[in-house]
Write a structure and sequence with these properties.
Layout: E1 13-17, H1 22-34, E2 38-43, E3 58-62, H2 68-74, E4 79-82, H3 96-117, E5 120-124, H4 158-172, E6 177-183, E7 186-187, H5 205-215, E8 219-222, E9 228-230, E10 232-233, H6 234-246, H7 248-251, E11 254-258, E12 264-266, H8 267-282, E13 292-295, H9 297-301, H10 316-322, H11 330-345
Parallel strand pairs: 1-2, 1-4, 2-3, 4-5, 5-6, 6-11, 7-10, 8-13
Antiparallel strand pairs: 9-12
Bound molecules: uridine-5'-diphosphate-glucuronic acid.
Length: about 350
């Protein structure tokens, strides 16, 4: 891999797998706006990227990694970003086998093809590979933290197990140029779906709480909402990928946390913050927006649900090797996300 990928080099084509998803649609926009590159995008969905389909620098293929011919084609490009995944906890219990196929078998096949072709594979993994972290756990360090996953009967961990195996596969595959990205709860416009409108089941917490607010229903706090997360703007995530592109020489062969440790809060506090932001956007008083209801994890998600109680990233490695630090405050992300959600779904 050439250590300097110049953004004005129009001879470069990047393959973006999962270009129609939440992160993919933001990255695609940024690639088209900030570079002269061509983008070969693959996804089963294109509703988030309709405005880009006619762009002459973008070629879209409606497919997924289950098709070997598609995998072969993707691996012909020198840089491959793989964002494709089933990544909503609501599906990890009932659809564990499909979750494992999507998060291990498919990316492993893509890694094999990239090892053959010599492409640089930037693989989006997950902060969930750190497993069942306790409430008093310290910052998660890429190349040091011990990993504990729950028992096999707790199928919540089907996803983390598959993602972790993929990371191990990538690091063990001879000849592969790889970089692993571990997202810490990215948030922003276009995240997930509204149940019953453009998706079924339980989306992740931002979309779930946004849906409840817009529908005037109570926000469901799973097991009291004591678990903590570090929510990170999708715009910071996009900037991180550009830091990778600019630093291929140091990024290859490394795994990076991408998270904003300064945005840490409990899910109960997130619910309250979102209620206040929603009230302010709508010009309502707090007492006029939906309240909060506590539910049990198993009742809400089904048997086998389990949780990470704290997910705090160490951000030192990304800063040291790439000069990257996430900077968008949570309140700014929530305002942007909720305004988008209201504009998109509220009638
Ligand atoms: C999920 C994925 O499993 C991770 O791979 C991914 O990295 C992560 O999202 C992410 O977005 O980066 P998790 O953080 O557990 O992990 O995702 P959410 O479904 O958003 O749940 C966050 C917390 O909120 C959990 O404690 C959950 O129990 C709680 N929650 C969720 C509620 O209290 N109410 C809800 O309506 C939804």
């Amino acid at each position: 891999m050439n250590a300097t990928l110049r953004f004005d080099d129009s001879s470069i084509t990047v393959a973006l797998v999962g270009c129609g998803g939440f992160i993919g649609c933001h990255l695609l926009r940024a690639l088209l706006e900030r570079t002269q590159w061509r983008i070969f995008g693959v996804d089963l969905d294109s509703y988030r990227i309709q405005e880009f389909l006619s762009n002459s620098r973008f070629e879209f293929l409606s497919a997924d990694l289950a098709e070997p011919a598609v995998v072969e084609r993707i691996a012909r490009y020198p840089v491959v970003v793989n964002l494709a995944a089933i990544c909503t906890p609501g599906r990890y219990m009932a659809e564990a086998a499909e979750v494992i196929r999507s998060n291990y078998n498919h990316p492993a096949a893509l890694a094999d093809a990239c090892a053959q072709s010599g492409s640089w594979l930037i693989h989006f993994s997950t902060s969930e590979i750190y497993g069942k972290t306790a409430a008093d756990s310290s910052a998660l360090v890429e190349d040091e933290s011990e990993i504990v996953l729950g028992p096999v009967t707790a199928s919540r961990w089907s996803y983390a197990t598959a993602k972790l195996l993929t990371e191990r596969y990538l690091t063990g595959l001879a000849g592969l140029n790889w970089t692993v990205v571990r997202p810490f709860n990215f948030v922003g416009p276009y995240m997930d779906f509204m149940p019953g409108v453009d998706g079924e089941g339980i989306p992740r917490v931002l979309a779930n709480f946004s849906t409840a607010l817009v529908r005037g229903e109570s926000l469901k706090l799973v097991n009291g909402g004591v678990a903590k997360r570090c929510f990170t703007s999708v715009h910071d995530a996009v900037d991180f990928v550009f830091c990778l592109f600019a630093n291929a020489n140091v990024a290859i062969g490394e795994a990076f946390n991408v998270g904003n440790a300064e945005n840490e809060l409990s899910i109960a506090d997130l619910a309250q913050m979102m209620r206040l932001v929603y009230a302010s956007i709508k010009g309502k008083s707090e007492s006029d927006v939906p309240g909060i209801e506590v539910v049990s994890g198993e009742a809400y998600y089904g048997k086998g649900y389990d949780d990470s109680m704290r997910r705090l990233p160490s951000v030192e490695k990304a800063l040291r090797l790439l000069g990257f630090k996430a900077i968008v405050p949570l309140k700014v992300s929530l305002e942007e996300s909720l305004r988008w959600f209201i504009g998109h779904y509220e009638v």
